[in-house]
Design goal:
The structure is a homodimer of 435-residue chains. Chain A is an alpha/beta fold. Chain A has a seven-stranded mixed β-sheet with strand order 3-5-4-6-11-7-10, sandwiched between helices. In chain A, strands 1-2 form a two-stranded antiparallel ribbon. In chain A, helix 1 links the parallel strand 4 and strand 5. The longest helix of chain A is centred in the C-terminal third of the chain and has 22 residues. Chains A, B: GO terms for molecular function: carboxypeptidase activity. Chains A, B: InterPro entries: Peptidase_M28, Peptidase_M28B, TFR-like_dimer_dom, TFR-like_dimer_dom_sf. Chains A, B: Belongs to the peptidase M28 family. M28B subfamily.
Chain lengths: 435, 435
């Protein structure tokens, strides 16, 4: 496009100090093209075969080597990628450096810590999905939690988190131990949440439940069934409501100076992200009883089902009943932990297995049908009508959009079946059968 | 059919002392109808809804209550069912009676023992499949072995066993402890095998690997993925090669006197079956290290792949390579057990989990496709071209029958994928990635 054609841009004029040297045009940004102008874009691509690599490191657990806490981040970028994914890579490498120092000083994790640097995320999550598909039997049986870094830092205002509901309390615990970047001494990531990112009804930090399909957590959510986490130190989103991401996302301007000059000049947000993710990993790897709070799932399920709008509200009754039962069973499960012999490894292990397997209980092995068999999580998964985001009960949501009642009722039956199944996994081992 | 029409039967004449009182006909059995006679059969059925029940009892394990050894048997019969299934019911009830006595005397099993009396097996395995589908998440994570009784006794010559390869050694161990019915004192079920049911090449008892779809083990094989067993005390099958089952199978003549007069007059075969199954259950429930021999699977896989006839034998190379790797990994796994700290519950538990999960590693969550998604076991399952029996690698077998090379290669790729996955589950926890 020639400069003279600036005049065809229909957006607002830029601020005075942004104007260039041409005097015969008004400098504008964005907007529609004026008149019926069109732009011809020529693309000179060629198809090439390129190899890509996942780089995986494991620090073997001393007591439970067959339970994995995984931190992962992709390594490929659309262009230079100083934010996406290098803010994540820098953060993950710093975590491995610190843990490596601890290891040299004698530290051995209780559970195994796994670090994954993925290839080809931008080309369809290829690195992580191939790895997961190849080792699904190993990973499905053993992973407690996958903690994703990707765009670890695109601002320095507060930490934005998406996770499984069961991780809520462990995340809050970690956030209380980590300083908030560029804030007064003693203010933590948690404190900042309570100031600028608080749920006013519960008076708790906002953590979004359900992750979606936008990064390497996807396969862990949908195929492995672990309880996962994704975090980004971000800008003030309330002030920039129209920005879906940071301004130079996926462009060639993702260079070091972007981060150094504009996003995180002293790298304090990077530091906090490393601390938050590292501390959370250690909370998950070192607690003899896995710090997963299943009651959070019960609470969230009730919220989700209340948000569903079926034209025949009674159609949801079986699902509501199942969720009520789940809620009661979850309470009994938590109660049981109080009389546990925490010196008995067998008791610890079997209780932890129930905690670990809860998220797996929400996986439908057949997925959302023969063409979407990888979308296995019945509560949190992209749906056909919303492929990027994550809605509660995607099958039901799709059916409601389609408006066919038999399909709605069928999807409610599937969800009810899996919630009931999840309840049975939490019951006493000789009393799991419904009465 | 009127008696006079005996003359239209084309079979052989019955022995002299079987003849009836009519003098104007030759008594015959079986054969084709002579000339072009036809028979009109009128059937007076009506569709009725009937409830059926599974009756489940659990003796909770003291140390590992979340690991189940399951004994099951159906309760419904086509008619009176003194053999199918009551020989199994009598055997299972005797096992529960004995274990109940032991319990009263203080016995507590290490793992949980579960007893299942299934309804509606004859109508399509309804009782067991419904139970399995409802509790698949619980059962899939916890069952070590399902031991099926059904036709427990239809003869008193030797015990015929079908099982997963990994149970071979535990079965042999149990068989050495149980007397062979109607044989001289001191002769065991194992001794009888070595006389009349021996594999001459290996000089070991014949145990058929793979169970099929003919009884309630089906869902445990295909959906749960436990390592299963089915046993029948049977007649001399070498002498009666033309009999696919006992003569009065599924008829109204399955009455008590059939068993008492002809099959097992002193109920010694029933007794041996109860002892064999009960002892095997205790071997499986009480051994700290699960007595599953995975090397048997490696050996068997080689046998199966050698029995496959592809027109392009090299097509099988990837599968052979995967099986060779599996074999080597299995050896290393067994080797590892020798340096295990068997006082350490965590070590026991994680090693046992690897043993337990091996059979699960052979389950393809998608089964044999959208219409056969319940046929999940890639090694032993009924195939489309043989629905009742169990062949090795049913997907490959079907593809060979169809004769389309791309389909054959595709099925070999699927099998190879799952064998490789199974190998990764057996490796060291920080070295499961292929190099």
């Amino acid at each position: 496009m020639k400069v003279v054609e600036f005049r065809y841009l229909g957006g607002n004029e830029v601020p005075a100090n942004w104007r260039g040297i041409l005097s015969n045009v008004a400098y504008r940004y964005g907007g529609e093209l004026l008149n019926t102008s069109s732009i011809e874009v020529k693309s000179f691509n060629r198809l090439e075969r390129k190899d890509t690599y996942n780089v995986i490191g494991i620090m073997k657990g001393e007591i439970e080597p067959d339970r994995y806490i995984v931190i992962g981040n992709h390594r490929d970028a659309w262009s230079l990628g100083s934010v996406d994914p290098t803010s994540g890579t820098a953060t993950m490498l710093e975590i491995t450096r610190v843990l490596g120092e601890m290891y040299k000083n004698g530290f051995r994790p209780r559970r195994s810590l796994m670090f994954c640097s993925w290839g080809a995320e931008e080309y369809g999550l290829i690195g992580s999905i191939e790895y997961i598909q190849e080792y699904v039997k190993v990973l499905g049986a053993r992973i407690v939690s996958y903690m994703n870094l990707d765009i670890a830092v695109n601002g320095a205002y507060y930490v934005n988190i998406k996770s499984s509901p069961v991780l809520f309390d462990a995340i809050v615990k970690a956030a209380k131990m980590v300083p908030s970047a560029y804030d007064p001494d003693g203010q933590t990531v948690y404190d900042k949440w309570m100031k600028v990112h608080r749920n006013d009804i519960t008076n708790e930090p906002k953590i979004a439940f359900g992750l979606g399909s936008a990064s390497d957590y996807f396969g862990f959510d949908q195929i492995v069934g672990s309880s996962n986490y994704d975090a980004t130190y971000t800008f003030n989103r309330a002030e920039h409501k129209n920005l879906s991401s940071y301004a130079l996302y996926h462009t060639s301007y993702e260079v070091f100076s972007l981060v150094k000059k504009f996003i995180d000049p002293d790298f304090l947000a990077h530091q906090s992200m490393g601390q938050l993710t590292g501390v959370l990993a250690l909370i998950l790897s070192e607690s003899p009883i896995l710090p997963l709070n299943i009651s959070r799932y019960a609470f969230t399920l009730k919220e989700i089902v209340n948000s569903l709008n079926t034209s025949n509200p009674n159609d949801l009754d079986p699902l509501r009943d199942a969720i009520n039962e789940f809620s009661q069973v979850a309470n009994e499960f938590v109660e049981r932990s109080k009389s546990m012999d925490i010196e008995n490894p067998y008791e610890i292990r079997l209780y932890n297995d129930q905690l670990l397997q809860l998220e797996r209980a929400f996986l439908n092995p057949l997925g959302q049908g023969p063409n979407d068999s990888d979308m296995k999580h019945i509560i949190y998964a992209p749906s056909k009508t919303s492929t990027y985001a994550t809605l509660g009960f995607p099958g039901i949501t799709d059916a409601i959009v389609n408006g066919i009642r038999t399909e709605i009722v069928n999807q409610i039956a599937i969800a009810t079946f899996f919630i009931r199944g999840a309840s049975s996994t939490l019951k006493e081992f000789d009393k799991f059968i419904a009465t």
